[in-house]
Amino acid sequence: MAKKREIYKFLAEGEPAVHISKYLHVSKAYVSKVINELLTGGYIICVNPKGKPKLYAVTKKKYTEKQSIKDQKNAKLTRLYHRYEIIQIQKCSYKSQITHEPTRGKWDKIYNLNSTKIFEYRLPIKDFGNILFKRFKSNNKDTLLIILPRFLIHKEELKDIDNILLEKACMAVSRFKKLFNVGITKPVICQKPDKAVPAHDLKIIDEVQTNGTMKVGDIMVDASEPHNFVEVESKDSRDIINYLDTINKMKYIEDISKNNSILLSNLVETLKTFGENQSRIIGIIQEKEKQNNLKYPSFDINT
User: Which of 174, 177, 216, 217 is deepest in the core (most CB within 10 A)?
Assistant: First the structure.
């Protein structure tokens, strides 16, 4: 029977349940049971709830076999709506200048900060999220900040991320302009986004779970709200692409190794079965020879 730690390790590496069952030679039912316990305990989350096969990411809650997962049945679980090679874009904002006062529309919130008056408005966009508009009005400036929500893109789209972000910001400004009947300049980026993907290396995950945030150069690994899964973040798209490509290469090598191991195991089993069948056949022939007193004729080479 495989240890739960081994199943946990495979899940952290992005392996689906059906593969884990084959690698560890255990039933699918047992793997599913362990997955449910890990989910209930808050040690993992499903990263593609509507996908098949289901994949999982490890949360910041450290798992050891000594801990009782069953005692965590009432733990609140969070869901992450992306999966392997889907990248989360976050912490991105643009700014525009207001050239004409709004003549209609109602702000959600208005307050003062020193000599600046601040207006806030949230605009929900279907299949995208809530865009936050913050207007900073003072005696000499009237700036509109456009804060984009977290959203997801595929790895292949990352090369066009600047165009994608600008398109979304322009779309948001266009909607806001119509709602408030206001004059606004073209948005320009003021905060470059972080790109984040779930971490898949158990050593890195254990380090973050034990000691908190790690940072190497411009790459950061942490577990933060709202999902609490351990993620690799960077503002540079190349860092994220290199990280995902490295995982792919490692998984390819591991798959070849595992497949070769399975093939070798099957070959050994086949040869073993063949040897057993051959011995059985020889035994049957010898038994019949004894029963019939049959012997192979001998030949004298001199005659």
Answer: 177
**Digit-coded pLDDT (tens) for 101-151:** 999 989 999 999 889 999 999 998 877 889 999 999 998 899 999 999 988
Cα separation, 164 vs 184, whole angstroms: 20
User: Among the three residues 192, 208, 223, which one is the final residue of a domain in this structure?
Assistant: 192
Say whether pLDDT at 282 is over 90. Answer: no
DSSP, collapsed to helix, strand or coil, labels residue 10 as: helix
Helix (H) or strand (E) holding 244: helix 237-292
Q: What is the mean pLDDT of the chain?
A: 79
CA of 28: how far to CAs of 4, 7, 31, 35, in Å? 13, 11, 5, 10
- Give the global pTM: 0.59
Among 192, 223, 254, residue at a domain's last position:
192
* Cα 77 from Cα 286, distance rounded (Å): 68
- Dist. CA 135–CA 121, nearest whole Å: 9
